[in-house]
């Protein structure tokens, strides 16, 4: 009988040994347990919680004491803006965007063509450069020499998110100061929800590149219409047409064809690949929530640049707080001082991200969402080709066919949506004639 516990321990050791060996192999890739993505994510969320929880209690307190009626003093305007805002909702921004688009349609065709080329070139240059730099920063080493060896990799995705957000905050703030904006109506704290999900989606986007290839990530982004539809039903109670479900199914088939036929030679560990899929799933879920929450926020009287400013303000607050609590902020700055090439890449990455957001707003205001979607879909296809050319990603014939299916489905969505809008506008214009 005394031998039973020892035999049980021996069997357990034999069962765990392969996992320990696999973990040891993965440790060479992750450089220690403290670099495991799940642990880093836990630390990040813990840092955000140290800001969110006190903020929640403060907001609850001001609402409970009815501060809007009883409050006085120098802090009253700030607290009113952050907690209560101007609760009136309006559709003024829809009228403004429609008016600007009508003005653009009435201008000369040559001027319109020039604007379209400018928007397309700006979006392509910003986001293609951003994609190439993103893969370079997250998958390649810095300071590699023949004498010293393979160099040093940058590991803190959250610092890159902070760099992107601080520059976007600066650009959007200057834009709001220089150009007239509508009177702001939403309580500032409501931006924090979209900000938190936006931070987590961006973190997942950077982190996933440690485990999967860039083409896989781009295809996953293209397939996010599926969770966006699901989140739209949950958050906004939206209904969808049959063609939307059909194209979503086509996208899922194309992505499956690409993923199941892609070679895993670059990522020898199935654990690593599985981690990449989980992180990518997190990106899609968080990003879907962000877009739907922002749709709800636009019910208030605000411009897109004001939305950009509000979301990035809370993003900077969350990320810098978490980085300082972990001690990672100064470690990342030290990495920048050691590797000037990384500093240049990080700054250029942030510039491309901020400029890209401005090009998004301008393109949608001038030409509408359909033209913008076509440009960005082409950008995704070019990004895959560019990544395969620069970084040597192998794509099989079946995988290439899957990519083609995905982009065919995306173009079908754009075509069907534009037809639906034209049909709707014809019905609207014909209705007064029938009444007469």
TrEMBL record:
PANTHER family in the cross-refs: ADENOSINE 3'-PHOSPHO 5'-PHOSPHOSULFATE TRANSPORTER 1, SOLUTE CARRIER FAMILY 35 MEMBER B
Family per similarity comment: Belongs to the nucleotide-sugar transporter family. SLC35B subfamily.
Coiled coil feature spans: none
GO cellular component: endoplasmic reticulum membrane; Golgi membrane
Transmembrane annotation, as ranges: 38-59, 113-133, 159-179, 242-261, 267-286, 307-330, 342-362, 369-392, 398-416
Chief localisation class: membrane
Keyword entries, A-Z: Membrane, Signal, Transmembrane, Transmembrane helix, Transport
Official protein name in the record: Adenosine 3'-phospho 5'-phosphosulfate transporter 1
């Amino acid at each position: 009988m005394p031998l039973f516990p020892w035999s049980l321990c021996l069997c357990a050791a034999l069962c765990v040994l392969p996992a320990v060996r696999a973990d040891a192999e993965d440790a060479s890739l992750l450089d220690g347990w403290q670099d495991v993505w799940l642990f880093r994510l836990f630390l990040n969320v813990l840092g955000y919680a140290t800001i969110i929880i006190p903020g929640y209690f403060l907001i609850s307190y001001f609402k409970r004491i009815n501060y809007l009626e009883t409050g006085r003093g120098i802090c009253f305007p700030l607290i009113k803006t952050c907690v209560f805002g101007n609760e009136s909702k309006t559709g003024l921004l829809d009228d403004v965007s429609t008016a600007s688009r009508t003005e653009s349609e009435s201008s000369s065709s040559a001027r319109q063509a020039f604007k379209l080329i400018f928007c397309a070139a700006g979006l392509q240059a910003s986001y293609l450069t951003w994609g190439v730099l993103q893969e370079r920063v997250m998958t390649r080493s810095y300071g590699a020499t023949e004498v010293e060896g393979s160099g040093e990799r940058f590991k803190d995705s959250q610092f890159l998110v902070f760099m992107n957000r601080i520059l976007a905050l600066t650009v959007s703030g200057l834009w709001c100061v220089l150009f007239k904006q509508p009177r702001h109506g939403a309580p500032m704290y409501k931006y924090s929800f979209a900000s938190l999900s936006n931070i987590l989606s961006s973190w997942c986007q950077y982190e996933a590149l440690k485990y999967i290839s860039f083409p896989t990530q781009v295809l996953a982004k293209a397939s996010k219409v599926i969770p966006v539809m699901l989140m739209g039903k949950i958050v906004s109670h939206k209904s969808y047409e049959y063609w939307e479900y059909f194209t979503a199914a086509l996208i899922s088939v194309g992505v499956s064809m690409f993923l199941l036929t892609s070679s895993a030679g670059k990522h020898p560990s199935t654990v690593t690949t599985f981690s990449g899929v989980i992180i990518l799933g997190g990106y899609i879920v968080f990003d879907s929530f962000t877009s739907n929450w922002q749709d709800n926020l636009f019910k208030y009287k605000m411009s897109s640049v004001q939305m950009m400013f509000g979301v990035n303000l809370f993003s900077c607050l969350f990320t810098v707080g978490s980085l300082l609590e972990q001690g990672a902020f100064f470690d990342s700055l030290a990495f920048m001082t050691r590797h000037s090439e990384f500093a240049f890449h990080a700054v250029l990455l942030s510039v491309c991200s901020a400029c890209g957001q401005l090009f998004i707003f301008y393109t949608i205001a001038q030409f509408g969402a359909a033209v913008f979607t076509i440009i960005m879909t082409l950008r995704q296809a070019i990004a895959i080709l560019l990544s395969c050319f620069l970084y040597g990603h192998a794509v099989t014939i079946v995988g290439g066919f899957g990519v083609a299916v995905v982009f065919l489905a995306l173009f079908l969505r754009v075509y069907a949506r534009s037809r639906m809008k034209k049909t709707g506008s014809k019905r609207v214009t014909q209705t007064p004639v029938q009444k007469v």
